[in-house]
Specification:
Helix content is 52%, strand content 10%. It is an alpha+beta fold. It folds into three domains: 2-176, Butyryl-CoA Dehydrogenase, subunit A, domain 3 (Up-down Bundle); 181-313, Aminopeptidase, CATH 3.40.630.180; 316-463, 3-Layer(aba) Sandwich (Aminopeptidase). The strands form three sheets. Strands 1-2-3-4-5 form a five-stranded mixed sheet, with helices on both faces. A three-stranded antiparallel sheet has the order 6-9-8. A two-stranded parallel ribbon has the order 7-10. The radius of gyration is 26 Å and the shape is globular.
Length: 468
């Protein structure tokens, strides 16, 4: 971290000298500016050659952007999206030059001409101290702009421009946050409090209710938490995973999160259960971290605890409730028989999951329906509807087991009717599973899951759901 601090101080010195070069006083940094004035400063930034003046100007733009109200920020991003495009005349000239003489140099000139100016703007804004952090937040504002444009049914060209700007952010972030820059850290009770506070805040799967709850998850010897960090966001976790070390595959989340439980001796642990994975930075959506995180943690745990032989998740099924409710209310339900539809009426009753007779009737209908959801229901891209399934299957995991009433919390019942699943990370099969999924869309599933699939139902149609 000392090297990072030194680099930051160096950037500060360059920025201070650059301010003098472009006539900016310290009092000017926090001054307000309109969206149009900021765009003019951005034009100045990408036209400058000097490093010191560029660093100072980048800092000025980001400081003033922070002073804008949300509508003004959206207005600024709208202007950047529409005005910082590629020079079309230069692109035409580069295409003609390449056709006349298709050399590597001509191809490089075409590449440079085709790149939107917004990419160069983002690169130069990143020169400022804490520029990366500011740009990640800026992309969150861009998400709001894109949502608003679609809600307003705005001009398609404007929507395309905003989408293109977002692609520029994602393209650059994918380079800046590649695996080579990420640092894996073990989160425990000795981790600084300001980072632990963020773990509490960012937990997205199973809410952490306070410090005592967090301590139960990270302090016992049979519990682990790991997070990825990046040098540009020193105290900001990018993604973290919570792990329970157990003597077998857990079918439900409640025993793992129980307040009162016996700590398992490490020598008795045979299974590592990844029960919560949370992305922390909304502005980094689309940048892949999770697959690297899980595989790295599997390797580290296998090395640390030789008795561990099984690595699985205990995962939510966030798209299942939406799909199930739509199908059982359809005139032509897919993945369910008429008998299933009738039995599933019980889930509309309050506290149905507390009645053993109702539970058994629902289970007999729900588990085959879940098998159809995972193995046969596809989105328009030919992939499973469930986003968590796409993530783990894409990593090379296998759908190992479906757990009826694995999560009977309010959230679990609402998003998946209580269903949870285990994805198995079999180190000997990960690459094969990944390849068949990536190339053919094949869902790797255990025989126990496959047996639940009803064979007398027609093929399911492709669906486009909000969460798909």
């Amino acid at each position: 971290m000392a090297a990072i601090s030194f680099f930051g101080d160096l950037l500060q010195t360059i920025s201070d000298r650059g301010r003098d070069l472009i006539g900016i006083g310290r009092g000017d940094l926090g001054a307000r500016a309109s969206a149009q004035e900021l765009v003019k400063l951005c034009e100045d930034l990408i036209s400058r050659r000097g490093e010191a003046s560029g660093v100072a100007l980048a800092r000025l733009i980001l400081e003033r952007y922070e002073t804008l109200a949300k509508p003004e920020r959206v207005g600024f991003l709208r202007l950047v999206a529409t005005e910082f495009t590629a020079d079309h005349a230069a692109v035409d000239e580069a295409i003609a030059a390449y056709r006349a003489d298709p050399t590597r140099a001509a191809l490089g000139a075409l590449h440079d001409a085709a790149e939107p100016r917004s990419q160069e703007l983002i690169r130069r804004l990143n020169l400022a101290r804490d520029g990366t952090r500011a740009l990640v937040r800026m992309r969150e504002d861009l998400f709001a702009l894109r949502r608003d444009l679609r809600r307003e049914e705005a001009d398609p060209d404007l929507i395309d421009a905003a989408d293109s700007l977002d692609s520029d952010f994602e393209h650059l972030f994918a380079s800046w946050f590649n695996r080579g820059f990420l640092v894996l850290r073990h989160i425990d009770w000795t981790t600084p409090a300001h980072i632990l506070e963020k773990i509490i805040r960012y937990e997205a799967v199973h809410e952490i209710t306070g410090w005592d709850d967090l301590r139960r998850r990270i302090e016992p010897t049979d519990r682990r938490c790991f997070a990825f960090f990046h040098p540009a966001l020193v105290d900001e976790p990018l993604i973290f995973v919570e792990v329970a070390l157990t003597a077998g595959i857990a079918p439900a989340i409640a025993p793992i999160l129980a307040h009162e439980r016996e700590t398992l001796p490490l020598k008795a642990a045979t299974t590592a259960i990844f029960y919560s994975i949370s992305n922390c930075q909304k502005g980094l959506a689309g940048v892949t971290f999770g697959n690297f995180l899980i595989k790295q943690v599997v390797e580290d745990l296998a090395r640390e605890i030789p008795s561990l032989k099984t690595f699985v998740t205990l995962s939510p099924v966030p798209g299942f409730s939406t799909w199930l409710d739509r199908e059982r209310r359809s005139d032509a339900p897919q993945g369910l028989t008429r008998e299933d539809v009738e039995a599933l009426r019980l889930i509309d009753e309050p506290d149905w999951h507390s009645d053993k007779t109702k539970c058994e009737a629902v289970r007999k209908a729900m588990i085959p329906a879940a098998a159809a959801y995972f193995l046969r229901a596809k989105n328009e891209r030919g992939r499973p509807l469930d986003p968590v399934a796409r993530f783990h299957l894409g990593n090379g995991a296998r759908l190992e087991r479906m757990n009826f009433l694995g999560d009977i919390s309010g959230k679990g019942l609402a998003q998946s009717r209580g269903l949870m699943v285990n994805y198995l990370y079999d180190l000997s099969a990960i690459e094969k599973n990944h390849e068949t999924y990536a190339n053919l869309g094949t869902v790797a599933a255990s025989s126990a899951v496959s047996r639940e699939l009803r064979t007398n139902l027609p093929p399911l149609r492709a669906v486009a759901l909000a969460e798909a």
